[in-house]
Amino acid sequence: MTGVDLQTIPARRAVAVSVRAGQRIEVVNTYGRQVVDTWAFAAADRTEWMSMEHSRLHIARLSPQVGDTLVTNRRRGILTLVADSSGGVHDTLLAACDRYRYELLGCAEPHDNCTDNLHAALASVAITVAATPSPLNLFENARPAADGSIEIAPPVSPPGSSVTLRAELDALLVLSACPQDLVPTNGPDLTPTDAQFRIFC
Amino acid sequence: MTGVDLQTIPARRAVAVSVRAGQRIEVVNTYGRQVVDTWAFAAADRTEWMSMEHSRLHIARLSPQVGDTLVTNRRRGILTLVADSSGGVHDTLLAACDRYRYELLGCAEPHDNCTDNLHAALASVAITVAATPSPLNLFENARPAADGSIEIAPPVSPPGSSVTLRAELDALLVLSACPQDLVPTNGPDLTPTDAQFRIFC
What we know:
2 copies of one chain form a homodimer.
Chain A: E1 7-9, E2 14-19, E3 24-29, E4 36-42, H1 52-59, E5 69-71, E6 77-84, H2 99-104, H3 114-124, E7 136-138, E8 161-167, E9 171-177, E10 195-200
Antiparallel strand pairs in A: 1-10, 2-9, 3-8, 3-10, 4-7, 4-9, 5-6, 6-8
């Protein structure tokens, strides 16, 4: 990884990044409390995307561990988790935040959200996708309790910790630094931050 | 419910059923071991559908209990679980089975699957949907263990037990009697069966 510059995912915004099969992407939780909603679309056909509901069966657990491969809605491997210094707490259960979420939380004005971020990032590379896949929510701490109840708690990832994913297909990734500032998704001070990433071989 | 005839969901097949807001649908696990993949689409706009990833946040748990309302991808209530004599074990985590699933399980020939069943049932009422939402898998026993691991076990629902869902919106439902016969989704004897349903006020 030495010598590969980190790039910024601005707080409250998303970036679209193309990767080739075999390349790796390291996503850094710079301040340790930022959730990064992550999507992956096959380059060859953007109706094939990374699917949490297919991946949970493939990996036979709720959330990926190092060595696990996430699969598409055609059950092909697309991203493998190859390293994780964050404590390993990520979420596959919850939808990306959206305008409706913030309306229900009482926002009278439009609020930045990961769903609009996804589609804006795709539009920036001239791509339209007909649905919003459920994202891999890196660093999100919403592990269900033994009784199946779910509560969103602050991330446990140390500042500067990261996850590294290897692309198994040529893919377009979208990374959204979640703008949630009304519940503690992004830490107890409710302040979304930048995150960072880098691509390497 | 007296006097309302039960209708059949044929083994390995799906049916499409329109319901009006306020109507109830009872889904009966006739032989006690059949999973029924269930989808709901808003009648007013078929890009608004029942979403497991939005519902898990709304109900704050992995799987609905009596009184819980499942929501759409616009976070509007669409179905409320109003009665359940099945033991309460249902799945929201796993994708519908599809041709890719059976290919990975070693099927050389095409195999009936819930994803194709969904789109065939929609086609029977002249509807096309651009994606395959993750279904509510009624009676499916795939509760994660405390360590987050997931294993598909036979249903626990007694023969003739049922769930009743109330429509909160005018909606089109699709119910698929899952054709899985290679793993014990539909019981240890790997034999999919009919299920039944009725609509009432």
